[in-house]
Each structure stands twice: as structure tokens, then as C-alpha cells.
Amino acid sequence: MSRYIYGIHEPNPLVYQGWVVHTVAVGHDPHDGHGWDFRERGKTALVRVNHGYGRAGTIPRPPLYEAFAQRCANVAAASEGCSRWIIGNEMNHSQERPEGQAITPWMYGECFSGCRAAIRAVPGHEADDVIVGAVAPWNAETRYAENLSGDWIRYFQDVLQACRAYDGVAVHTYSRSQWADVVASEARMGSFPEHNAEFRSYRDFARVCPEGTPIYITETNPCAGGTVWVDENRGWVRAAYAEIAAWNASNPTRQIRCLSLYRWPRYDRWYIEGKGGVIEDYMAAVKEGYTWGGEPGQPPEQSELAAALAVVAEALRGVADVLEVVE
User: Fold this and answer.
1) CA atoms of 90 and 324, how far apart (whole Å)
2) Does a structural domain hold residue 49?
3) For residue 78, which of 43, 54, 47, 56 has the smallest C-alpha distance?
4) Minimal CA–CA distance to 286: which of 294, 274, 297, 275?
5) Same domain, 173 and 60
6) Domain assignment present for 120
7) Are residues 52 and 201 in the same domain?
8) Are residues 191 and 313 in the same domain?
9) For residue 181, is pLDDT > 90?
10) HSE of 89 in the Cβ direction (CA atoms, 13 Å)?
11) 234 and 316 in one domain?
12) How far apart are CA 84 and CA 49, in angstroms?
């Protein structure tokens, strides 16, 4: 598991020590044994397991929870390179509802608990971390008797209560421009003045997590409101990582293990691939060597040297194996 807080949503060719967030749609066929290879040198995998996208629902309708849980277990059994699984995504957002059916916290809790039990029943995965899916910030679409306003932080708290046992939480946080100064903004939501309206919305989630809960920010970008990454090095990325490092230094019982930029590939308008200014900003942040857990990581230069030596050692072992066969 990486001690560095750097990450990017989806596989990418950048060289850094940290995290990579994968997203897969698995369906609910309990007889489907297909998996994936999530191994990538130097990067720890976080895999978001979705039932599907759009009207398929990030989790299925309740009658399919058991079948979905078995499919998640099959993915864990058949895949390589992952022991951390995020179940679902932005369950309070209308675009993630199965066939339009709203997902209450208790529905998600039932589904999540079944998935966690099924994954941990797989031989070799008994200690896997099964992580609560991220709740959409600034989204008040899902309302129910205990939360008539649709408050996303109340929804998050109810989800945690409904899930009972979990091994971490995923969080999404964004800002409304790519200028570095907005990262530290204390702006508040007009209709929810107790909640942050900029990047620091992550704090609203983190503060209500039980102490000791691992927190993974699996999506962040300066692109709220439909804007996109501007191909310029404006320092936003460096400021965001410095902000999370400062949070970790001041909050030892609520550590944020990663901050993953959304997203690398050109699947939608929020892509980073090919945007040299953004990549330059990211790699400058990587050079700072920020870690979580209160333990300093190796300076990046040493990490890169260690990785290079590991490659050489692996090559030498291959030569030795060949020589042994020849003898």
C-alpha cells in the first residue's frame, strides 16, 4: 500500500509513487467469473465496482443485491493486483439510480454489507478493504423522511450508519476554477451555509467520519459547473496536494490516503491526457513527496532509484534462471 497521497483516476503512463483509481462495470450475473489485471508498477490500485452506468444503476435494484454481491466476489477472485474495492458511486445522485429508483442510505447499506461479506469470503481476500462509495457533494436530489432537504453530508452520515462495518470511505471534492487560491477558499453554499462550496468540501465529509477511518479522495478537479481542465500550469494541483498534506498533519485520526485527479483518459470532457500544463503541475506536486500517516516517505529521487534497482534486480534474476537451465 502506498504511503504517498498522489493519484490519478484511471491508468496512465505517468511515473509516480501513489495510487490509481479504476472503475469497472460488473453487472449482476453470479456465474460470470471475469476479472481484470490491475497491477501497475509503483501504484496501488483502488477499484470502484459499479453494477453499471446510467440507468443500469451504480448498484442494482434490491432484488439483485445478492447476485451483485456474488459477482463482486467473483471479480475479486479472478483479478490481480487489488485488495481495495469501492462499492458504487455517488449513490445520492439521480444519474446513478437503477432504473430511476432512488437509493436510500439503508438500501445502499444492505447492498454494501452483502458485497463486503462476499468479497471477504473469497480465499486470499479475507482481509481486503471494502470501501464505502463516494457521496456526490453539493447534490440534494435524494430526499427521505429523515433528510427532507437532501443534505449530502446527512446522507453520508446515514450511509455510514447503515453500512455498520467498513474499511474506509471514498470522497469526492471539487472547486469552481483552476486558480490556486480557490483551494483554500472558505466560501459556503447559499442554501446550506454550514457546508463548503469549494475544494474544502472534503472537510465536511472528513469531519463526520469516525476517528481512524481511512479516507480516499478518489475524484477531484477544478471543473465544477461543466468547465474543463485548462491546459495551463496554474498551480492548482500543487495547492491541492499541499492542502491535503496540511490536513493530514493536523488531523492524525482522520488521514486522507490519496487525492486522485479526475481523470486521465479522453472519455469525457474532464480529461487530463495530453494537457502538458496540468501534467507539469502534477509532477511538480509529486516532487514534494507528500505522504499520509505521519511517516515521511523517501524523497522522490530515492524512490525512483529504488524502482530502477528493482528492475535491474529482476533482470538479473531472469539471467540467473536462464544460466541455471543451461547448466
Assistant:
1) 54
2) yes
3) 47
4) 297
5) yes
6) yes
7) yes
8) no
9) yes
10) 24
11) no
12) 10
Integer angstrom CA distances of residue 317 from 61, 308, 320: 51, 14, 5
Q: Which residues contact 13 (CB under 8 A, 6 or more apart)?
A: none
Residue 1 to residue 291: CA distance in whole angstroms: 12
Q: What would the pLDDT profile of 120-175 be if each residue is shown by its tens digit? A: 999 999 999 999 999 999 999 999 999 999 999 999 999 999 999 999 999 999 99
For 222-274, write each residue's pLDDT tens digit.
987 778 999 999 999 999 999 999 999 999 999 999 999 999 999 999 999 99
Number of residues that this document lists for the chain? 327
- Give, to the nearest 10 degrees, the angle between helix 105-120 and helix 65-78: 40
Element (H, E) at 236: helix 236-250
What is the rounded distance in angstroms from the CA atom of residue 210 to the CA atom of residue 292?
A: 17
Please give the grid coordinates belonging to residue 292: 499520509
CA angle (14 as vertex; 13, 19 as ends), nearest 5: 100
Q: Cell 486521465, residue? A: 264
- Provide Rg for the chain, Cα atoms: 20
d(Cα 76, Cα 173) in Å, to the nearest integer?
28
Q: Look at residue 244 and give its three-state secondary structure.
A: helix
Cell numbers for 40: 501497475
The whole domain housing 76 covers 6-296
Could you tell me the three cell numbers for 252? 492524525
Instruction: Pull the grid cell for residue 244.
Output: 491535503
Shared-domain flag, residues 189 and 318: no
Domain count, the chain: 2
Q: Is residue 263 reached through a cis peptide bond, with omega within 30 degrees of 0 on the bond before it?
A: yes
Q: Is 1 contained in some domain?
A: no
Q: How confident is the model at residue 202 (pLDDT cuts 50, 70, 90)?
A: very high
* 304 and 290 in a common domain: no
Q: Are 54 and 77 in contact (CB under 8 A)?
A: no
Residue 97 lies in a domain: yes
